[in-house]
Amino acid sequence: MRTLPLLAGGLLTALSLAVHAHDHGHDHHKHDHNHDHAEHQHGDTLGAHQHGVASLNLVVADGHVAIELHSPADNLLGFEHLPSSAEDKARVRQLMTQLQDVANVVQLPAAAGCTLVDSELSSPLFAALDKADSQAQHKHDHDHDHDHKAADDEHAHNDIELHYHFNCANAGSLDQLRVTLFEQFPRTERLLLQAVTPKGQQGGELTAANPVIVF
Ligand SMILES: [Zn+2]
After folding, report:
1. Are 108 and 166 in contact (CB under 8 A)?
2. Taking all residues of the chain, what is their mean pLDDT, rounded to a whole number?
3. Which residue among 12, 70, 126, 161 has its CA within the 20 to 30 Å range from the CA of 38?
4. Quick check: is 35 in a domain?
5. What does each C-alpha distance from 97 to 100, 103, 126, 143, 178 come to in angstroms?
6. Residue 156: what pLDDT?
7. Structural domain tally of the chain?
8. What pLDDT, on the 0 to 100 scale, is given for residue 37?
């Protein structure tokens, strides 16, 4: 819980910027600073990089929903090394496609009329996909001595970060969120929840047996 104020600040700033409705100029510098700080320390958000565990940060305000999910890549993919083989690259691409369909991650009440207006997937694995592709097109030398992490990080640990932002037409029906991630990615056993909703701050743990946040 120690990082909640930082994360909430970052999420609320993102929400405010997206909404263009909370122009409290005097607070922006402070929030921006906190946001950067939180970004750089997101490893601490997980406590430790622990396979099977991910963190879910949720902000619900005025019919807007911001979600940040930080997960070890293993939970979603079954491996964490940077993809270099054609098979691994195909699996990473498939994962990105799955994650771009937010229904595979979370579900909001149909009555709330929510639309996904922004999403972002980030991971060293996704970045490596682009680099590996461009290198393959430009180089055919397999023995060069440069420090290419993709070649020698078989035992590295890497995370995946997901960001989704919804606008909901009927805020009055926006009373819960169901995590569907557990069904799609059973290697994810627990989500550590930090939420700021109209009912205040909420923490806790979500599992396949307990996948719903009510607010
Ligand atoms: Zn790991």
Report:
1. yes
2. 80
3. 126
4. no
5. 5, 12, 11, 32, 20
6. 86
7. 1
8. 39
* Structure tokens, 27: 């607070």
- Nearest partner of 60 among 204, 207, 199, judged by Cα: 199
Strand residues in 104-187 grouped as ranges (E): 106-107, 114-122, 159-168, 176-179
Residue 205 inside a domain? The answer is: yes
The pLDDT value recorded for residue 187 is 98
Residue 55 CA, ligand 1 centroid: distance in Å? 14
Range of the domain at 192: 49-214
Distance 110 CA to ligand 1 centre (A): 35
* 124-138 vs 86-100: helix crossing angle, rounded to 10: 130
80 CA → ligand 1 middle, Å: 6
Does 198 reside within a domain?
A: yes
Given a cut of 60, whether residue 134 has pLDDT beyond it is no
Output the CA 48–ligand 1 centroid distance in Å: 10
Q: What is the pLDDT of residues 80-119, one digit of tens each?
A: 999 999 999 999 999 999 999 999 999 999 999 999 999 9
Q: Are strands 190-197 and 53-61 parallel, antiparallel or unpaired?
A: parallel
Percent pLDDT > 90 in the chain is: 64
Q: From ligand 1's centre to the CA of 145, what distance in Å?
A: 26
Q: Is residue 19 part of a domain?
A: no
CA–centroid distance, residue 68 to ligand 1 (Å): 19
